[in-house]
Amino acid sequence: MAFRPNTDCKVMANMNQVISIYCDESCHLENDHQTTMVLGAVWCPQAKAHEINVRIREIKSKYRLSPSFEMKWTKVSPARLDFYQDIVDYFFDDDDLHFRALVVSDKFKLQHFRFGQDHDEWYYKMYFDMLKILLKPNARFDIYLDIKDTRSAGKVAKLHDVLAHNMYDFDRSIIRRVQTVRSHEIGILQLADILIGAVSYANRRIQTSASKLTLVQRMRVRSGYSLTRTTLYREDKVNLFLWHARE
User: Fold this and answer.
1) Is residue 218 within 8 Å of 195, Cβ to Cβ?
2) Residue 187 has pLDDT above 50, yes or no
3) b/e string for 78-114 if b means 16 or more Cβ within 10 A?
4) 6-10, 115-119, 193-197, 231-235: which has the highest mean pLDDT?
């Protein structure tokens, strides 16, 4: 996996800028009986992260929700639809916020044995493919992942190794940290969960929740994309890559 420096994302400007990337995932386990996997990230300049988290708390307060209320795709319901629509609109209205997702449409087609890898190795390759267009050598990056289970620490260390190796970042001066955090403490990570949930819902072709379908449609209208096809490589706001296993 050779690294190709990205020169297109205008949010990343110079060597002194630090970008915070908040990552989450949906249906990533090998034997979870789910067809579609989504890896995604919301990113912004580190200098803007506090302001964004404050604004998310203000939107929660507007709807009489506690600042500690954890936004999640699984919590989308008719009673809170207006709140989640406001959150989606806030993402699109704030020029400092950006989203990238990699969608694996059919995990059942994976044939790891053909490529001399196991599911974990493939998973790290997909994470690199999701992140690589966000990374460039003349900026600095802090990457945060939602803590999932007891394997999180080892997974994070391995991901940092893979990312640093592919960027020739042997002194870790470009990718400064990759660490787990608790999503209930960070509004931007919760925002990532919502956007990933919408992309996953669209690609799984589910029709069971009118509220979730409304949010999917809101994201389609605001982005100008179907959410089920790869976007332009240079797309800066909602950047999607649909990955397909070789037949």
Assistant:
1) no
2) yes
3) eebbebbbebbebbbeeeebbbbbbbbbebeebeeee
4) 193-197
**What global pTM score does this model have?**
0.86
Range of lowest pLDDT (41-50, 66-75, 125-134, 182-191) = 125-134
Among left, alpha and beta (phi > 0; psi -120 to 50; other), residue 6 is: beta
